[in-house]
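Structure, all three chains, one model.
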Amino acid sequence: MEAAEPPMSTGTQSMASRPILRIGRLLLRLVIAALFLFAAITKLVDPSSFAQQIANYQLTPWAATAVLSVFLPALELCVGISLLLGRWESGALVWVAILLTVFSGALLSAIIRGLSIDCGCFGRSIENTGTLWPLIRNLALLVVTGFLWFSRRRK
Amino acid sequence: MHLSLLLSLFLAIPAFAQLKWDTMEQSLKSKPGDREVVATYRFTNTGTTPITIDNVHTSCGCTTAALAKNEYAPGESGQIVARMDIGSRTGHQEKSILVTTKQNPKTPTVLRLIADIPEPLVMKPTFVMWGVGESPKSKTIDIKVTDGFPIKLLKVDSDNPDIKVEVSEVQPGVELEVHVTPKDTSRPEMATLLIRTDYPSDNPQTYYAYAKVK
Amino acid sequence: MTALRQAGLILLIAVGLAGVTAAVHPKRPPFLAPPRDPNEVTLAQAKPWAGNILWVDARSESEFAAEHIPDAVCLNFENWNEQFPKFLDRYSPGQRVVVYCSATSCQLSREIAAKLKASGVDGAYFLEGGWEAWKQQNRP
C-alpha cells in the first residue's frame, strides 16, 4: 500500500538520522499513542456518561452530543492504534492535531464562560475536575505533535 | 539539540502546584446522632517561595473549611479542617473544597470529602393526614430497621392525646406498624409521634413522624 | 499515500467503529433526547399547576429571607426537623410540590425532592434552572 521508504542516510532531514532523536521521537509517538488509547478505552466503557460530560460543556445540541460520545472515542482508538503500530502515522497526526485543537477550544470556552456557583454547590461541574491543567497539557501535546509531524520520514 | 528529550521531560512534569497534599480525598462514615463529619487535609509548601492561600470555597453551605493562617513559607506545613454539617442528610454525600492560592490563581486544588451517613431506619410514610370531616379511620406508618443495623425500636408515643397510636410488632424491635387514629376530625389537630430507640447507647436517638388533621 | 488520504481512511474506520458501538453497546446514550429525570420539571411544565402548587425553597434560610418565590416554604437539610412540620402546615395531599434551589448546577433541589418523596409526598418534583430560571422569567 505504501511506497518504499527512502534509506535513512540519503538527503532527508539530518534530524532523522541522529539516534538520540529517533529514540526520543519513538518515545513521544508511543506516549501520544498511549494517551489516546487510554482516553479512548475509558470513554468506550461508558459512552452514556461521556455524553453527559460533553453535555456539561453546553456547546452542542443533544443529537450532536450523542453522536460525538461514540464517534470521538472511536476516532481516538484508531489514532492510538495507528500511532502505536507506526502505520498511517501522518494521517493519525492530522487527527491528533485536529482533536487537540477542538478539545482545547472547548476547555478554553468552559474556562471563559465559567459556571454558576451561586449556591456554592457545583455538583459534577467542570470546575470540579480542573480545567486549566488539561488545557496546558493539550497545548503541550500540540507542540509535540508539531514536532512529530515536521520530523516524520517523507516519501 | 536534544529537543525531543526535553519535550519528553516536559510531558512528565505534574501540575505546577507548590503545595503538596497528604491526601486530597477523604471518605468518612458517621454514626446516628453525629452532628457533623470532620476531615483534616494536611499540606506542605514544597516550593522555594512562600505561598498565600487566599480563598477556600466549599461546594455546599453545609460544609465549612477552616484555615489557621494564609501565608506558608517554603517547607512550612498547614492544614484545612473541613466540617460538614449532617443535618437530615442520609446516604452517600460528596462535597468539594476549592483551595486557591495567590501565586497560582488559575489552578485551584480540589479537595473531596466523601461521607456515608447511615440511615438506621426507614419510615413509610413519615406523616399521615386527614381532612377535616374525613372519616377518622386509622392510618398506618411502617417503621423498619435497616438490615443488620444494631438498633432497636423501643416505643412510639404521640404528644397529643387526641391522636392515638397503637403499635403492632411485625418483628419486635426491628419492624413495627404504627396505627394512628384521631379521636375525631371535626377540627384541625396536630401530633408529633416520637419513635424512641436504643442506639447509639451513649446518645439514643428519637425519630419523628407526624399526624395531622387539616 | 498522502497524509490526507491516510486521515480519510482512519476517519472511515472510526465511523464504522462508532456505528457498531452505537448499535450494540449496552451503555450507549439515548440518541433522540437527553435522559431526563422523571421528577425534573421546567417552569413551562409547572405553569398549568398554578393554583395547586406548593413551592419549596431548598436553599439556606438567609438566602430564602433575602428573596424567594412568593408563598414558597423553606425546607433544607440543616433545619429539616424544625421546618418539616411547617411544610406539613402548608401541604395538602394532591398538591404538586416543586422544589428549587439556586441554579441548574445545584443538586439540593433534587435531593430534597427525593427526601420528600420518600417521606410520602407523592407529587414531589424539582425545578430545572432553579431560582435563577424563575427570576429570569418573572422579571421584565
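The interface with chain C takes residues 1-2, 44-52, 55, 62-63, 65-67, 69-71, 73-75, 77-79, 82, 88-95, 115-119, 121-123, 125 of chain A (CB under 8 Å).
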